[in-house]
Amino acid sequence: MAALGKAAARWAPGLWRRAVRAAVWLGGRRFASGGAQSPPTFGLLLDIDGVLVRGHQVIPAAQEAFRWLLDPQGQLRVPVVFVTNAGNISQCTKAEELSAQLGFQVEPDQVILSHSPMKLFSQHHDRRMLVSGQGPLVENARALGFKHLVTVDELRAAFPVLDMVDLQRRPKTTPLPRNDFPAIEGVLLLGEPVRWETSLQLITDVLLSDGNPGTGLATAPYPHLPVLASNTDLLWMAEAKMPRFGHGTFLLCLEAIYRKLTGRELHYTGLTGKPSLLTYRFAEGLLARQAAQRGWAAPIRSLYAVGDNPMSDVYGANLFHQHLQTQQEGAARSCASILVCTGVYGPQAPGPPVPAPGSEGSPFHGHRDFGFRPELLQAAHVVSDLHEAVRLVLRKEGWAL
Fold first, then answer.
1. What is the pTM of this model?
2. Among 9, 116, 253, 351, whose Cα sits 20 to 30 Å from the Cα of 266?
């Protein structure tokens, strides 16, 4: 259980069972019946950025891979979920994008965004939450079940003197103080925002003032208000030649600021997205529901997680695999990690697929709350791209190519 990390260990066990139940019963369109192929007993968890696409460009090998996975009617032959640490988009929009890019119908309930498992944190859904991120922010938060939301922009408009970094945005006059603004009861971090300095400042203000940033407190409260965060990826791969900052970089900044100001560690009530075990349990439930909707009676025993980021995709899959060896809440018995070379990871020189942690040039990029176990960075399989990954899986499962 120590491997779950300090934050996950407190809330994950009970939520895993709810994750499977919730995912199995989530609404959505049913999948059509497949062909004569024997029912699959395995499923795929596919990362998106760096595996299927880079930025807006589809990776050709990914399109080739789905020729093996689709039947003549264009239906998937095996259950598949798309597990991404992206969160600044709606589930429906992401499914539409994937459908257009891959050439077959992807349903919204096949897409797991970084914050999707937050549907399970119902004890916080009635709180008044400050929400940070971009894209359809309020829409996403409401879809997760959160009812009372305040955006960073709304908070800034209510208290304009809080945002002082940008000289162009500083108020020209001193506004009257507000005493009618309801207290904020928690913080919801759904993805990297724009104007980081504003979000870092106002989120910190809320935590230090116990949700009343217009008044301030002589002593910062601790424990602080609940903080729920999704996507701890330090880096992600777009069209640039080098990886780009992810939401994990924003969280790292927030944690460092809070620790510097208070001398204490920022505590997360919940962390979702890869490598969180809760995300993998949630994905397992969706795979089971797909199989049930297609009439595939055999349980999904083997999972294959394909990704390009050793610290989120490989680490999370290996952590989940180890968990499955000791605790059996669902039907799955294994989760094999498959690392592709089309995204964040790309072998530059001969040697082991992932540099030995602690060696020169191999800093730890994972989030502090998931701990660091070097052996979990080693993928079960390293392949060039998704096409090779799918061929590997089908061969291992004894399916004809």
1. 0.85
2. 116
Q: What is the dihedral of CA 256, 258, 263, 268, to 10 degrees?
A: -90
Average pLDDT across each block of 10 residues of the chain; the chain has 401 residues. List them in order. Answer: 42 51 42 58 96 92 95 95 95 96 95 96 98 97 98 95 88 79 97 96 97 86 97 87 93 98 97 96 95 94 96 96 88 97 73 46 83 92 97 94 75
9-43: b or e for each residue (b if 16 or more CB lie within 10 Å)?
eebbeebbebbbebbbeeeeeebeebeeeeebbbb
pLDDT value at residue 35: 41
What whole-number distance in Å separates Cα of residue 276 and Cα of residue 281?
9
> CA 21, 104, 22: angle at the middle one, nearest 5?
5
Task: Find all residues with CB under 8 Å of 295, minimum gap 6, and list them.
Answer: 33
Pairing verdict, β 244-245 and 128-132: unpaired
Strand partners, 5: none
Residues contacting 314, CB < 8 A, separation 6+? 307, 337, 339, 354, 376, 377, 378, 379
Task: Please name the residues in contact with 83: beta carbons below 8 A apart, sequence gap of 6 or more.
Answer: 45, 46, 47, 48, 112, 274, 279, 283, 305
CA 244 to chain centre: 16
For strand 186-189 and strand 128-132, is the pairing parallel, antiparallel, or unpaired?
A: parallel
